[in-house]
C-alpha cells in the first residue's frame, strides 16, 4: 500500500502539486514507518 502513495507523490511532484506530495508521502510513511 505504501508504494501506491509513494508513486502518487512522485507523480504529483512532477505536476508541481507539492501539497499533494507531502500528503501522499505522509501516508506512505504511515503504512510503512
UniProtKB/TrEMBL annotation:
PROSITE patterns in the record: TPR_REGION
Tree of life domain: Bacteria
Name of the protein this chain belongs to: Tetratricopeptide repeat family protein
